[in-house]
Amino acid sequence: MVYALHLNGPLQPRGRWKADECSIGRALDVVGTRSALLILREAFYGTARFDDFVERAGVSQPVAAARLRELVMNGLLERVTYQEPGQRARRGYRLTEKGAGLLPALTALMQWGDRWLAPAGGPLAILHRECGEPVQAELRCSAGHRPEIGELELAQGPGSLTESP
């Protein structure tokens, strides 16, 4: 089996164009470090305090501070004020809608790691709280079909800067 997308219309042949304005590249510019992804993982797991991000993501304080600053600057996390009983008000972090939009990508990474890197199965599972069944990240077309890689094609999107590459 060939594990590649079919190139549609003006994208064929592949040698005629470069993926310079690639959304994957843009996304990696924002979350392309291991520490950023681990901090986002922790935010999805409910972590909000700086010290907890350091401990749970296994990163140093300077790395956590830099990644949190970048994630806030890029709109994936926001700073919030919280206060524990008997303590002074402190600042923490919370996912924004933009940050929450990364859950399918992180779920796909988790599933990939479970399948290919954890022969006995992954240590955690994401379950649908209402029915208890595992949640899966998967590709679906707008009509609801689940295509295989060989059934997919790459075409120019609405944000294409030129008529043809």
- Profile the largest sheet: 2 strands, parallel
Instruction: Give the SSE string.
Output: EHHHHEEHHE
Helical content stands at 25-40%
Counting DSSP H or I runs of 4 or more residues, the number of helices is 6
Uncertain spans, ≥5 residues at pLDDT below 50?
Answer: none
Global mean pLDDT: 93
The shape, in one word, is: globular
Q: How many beta-strand runs?
A: 4
Q: Estimate nothing, just give the exact number of structural domains.
A: 2
**Secondary structure category:** alpha+beta
| Strand fraction | 5-15%
The separation of the N and C termini measures: 28 Å
Radius of gyration: 20 Å
Describe the structure in your own words.
By secondary structure, the protein is an alpha+beta fold. The chain has two domains: 1-12 and 102-158, no CATH class; 33-96, Arc Repressor Mutant, subunit A (Orthogonal Bundle), CATH 1.10.10.10. 36% of the residues lie in helices and 10% in strands. The chain has six helices and four strands; from the N terminus they run E-H-H-H-H-E-E-H-H-E. It has helices at 23-31, 34-44, 50-57, 61-73, 97-100, 103-117, and strands at residues 6-7, 77-82, 90-95, 153-154. The chain has a two-stranded parallel ribbon. Helix 2 packs across helix 3 (50-57) and helix 3 packs across helix 4. The protein is globular. 12% of the residues are buried.
Write the layout of secondary structure elements.
Blueprint (H helix, E strand, L loop, with lengths): L5 E2 L15 H9 L2 H11 L5 H8 L3 H13 L3 E6 L7 E6 L1 H4 L2 H15 L35 E2 L11
